[in-house]
Amino acid sequence: MNPDTKASRTNDxxxxxxxxxxxxxxxxxxxxxxxxxxxxxxxxxxxxxxLGSRVPARWRIAAWILLxxxxxxxxxxxxxxxxxxxxxxHAAHQDLAQELEEFRAFAKEGKDPTTAKPxxxxxxxxxxxxxxxxxxxxEVILGAVGQRVMYTPTGALGxxxxxxQLPHDAALLDRIRQDPAASGVAHTSAxxxxxxxLAVVSGPDTGYLIMGDYMAPREAEVTxxxxxxxxxxxxxxxxxxxxxxxxxxxxxQPVRAVREVAEDISESDLTSRVPVRGNDDISALAVTFNxxxxxxxxxxxxxxxxxxxxxxxxxxxxxxxxxxxxxMEDNAVDRQRTLALVDDELARMGRIxxxxxxxxxxxxxxxxxxxxxxxxxxxxxxxxxxxxxxxxGWPILEIAEGTINVDAQRITQAVLQLATNACQFSPEGSVVxxxxxxxxxxxxxxxxxxxxDQGKGxxxxxxxxxxGRFHRGRAAHDEDRVRPGAGLGLAIVRSIAEAHHGSxxxxxxxxxxxxxxxxxxxxxQETPDTSKPGxxxxxxxxxxxxxxxxxxRTNTPSKEHSE
Length: 563
Prior knowledge:
Elements: H1 3-15, H2 20-28, H3 57-109, E1 111-112, E2 117-118, H4 122-131, E3 139-145, E4 148-150, H5 170-178, E5 183-188, E6 191-202, E7 205-214, H6 216-264, H7 281-327, H8 332-360, E8 371-374, H9 375-386, E9 396-398, E10 403-406, H10 408-424, E11 433-439, E12 446-452, H11 460-463, H12 489-499, E13 503-508, E14 514-521, H13 538-541, H14 543-552, H15 559-562
Parallel strand pairs: 9-11
Antiparallel strand pairs: 1-2, 3-4, 3-7, 5-6, 6-7, 8-10, 11-12, 12-14, 13-14
């Protein structure tokens, strides 16, 4: 089909007017509404739809402390008021009971001052008794004989509440006298009045001693006490509010520090940490948060280093492969040559990726799995595996004897990498020697294993950075020999040493060969007492091993090694 024809048909189809049916269907079909994207803040967190209070935590903590304190003080005031009112009522009853006892004693022992004989008249006895009384504030004392009410200004009217005068309230007096009870509560214009009465009988005559106690003055005292407590409590609430505000700020300070640190953390900077002060739960939160940041930073650095290293080192073989594939001619010879080069570059890329993956696993748990290992056996196994790397004699100049706690496979991998480098950067037929020893003693003892060659050596400037990733020394660029590699071998050695809490090192001078080694902590353990019967030294227990060690220490390669 002609493209122009197809384009024209397409244009025609797009310009055909819609029919009535099509328009009706489009009108009847409800529009499709897509959900709006969630509103997010610049840092990617939701700003709408979050549940919870908008009030800051510091205000909420202070408010809850203040509310709890206020409710407690309110309960204290109500309880205190109730207790004070009950105490006032009890005190009024005690005062009334005391007045009755005093009157009974007066009626029993008192005498008429005019005759010096016991009273014969109820009226006379009540008059004499009332004249000697001085009622307290809110108290009223009077006597009644028939319709006559006897009182003195100080004993009745002078002490009664101004709003109510019991001697002038005939109706209330009649109810009290007619009440069969000896005490009760009367409601007056001055409030409650607790009263008691005592009947005095002399022949056909009957009189009454009536005493009342108005509760209003006592309640006023209670109200004054409660108001005092209220104002003191109000001052206490203000002090509590200030203290709650300060304490809440101190409690939330680590939380604010966590928030500030979280805000400072960016996609490329994970170095901020929360300052830890104290030893409480909030400090534990800060420690946990810092530990989490440490893990994230380690994972981020490992990932970033892996990506950077992979992109840095894989770019060259990919470019080489692409260039040769683009320039490959259409003939069998050139195709075969190009495929061989591509296969070699792919194999190198595979080695690089394997080394990078190994370096990425260094910081993960379980990379190193130390186990008790015989140091001598470890070095002998390394020497046996190094034989296939090249004809270098491989003499063992010194060997450590004892038990060490290491990952034997990782140590072997590191030392064989050093042995491989020694073979690559030393002349054919030269000697590469091995050795191990213990340095120091006690808890600070170290186990050192080393590989020494007779190559061109390493100068001081290069030795300072030779264990870095993708670093290839000057010897790797010599044209006399092809030395494949990406500069990751010594980085792997250093990582294995650091995984054992040790270090990798090099001692060399230009032109005099180099000695590479690793040193790891190997605290000295208690040695068994060989003086006891039946105890034998390790060398005596294995004569063949003793002979092998002795032969290797002569620094003379065996016939087998020389070949």
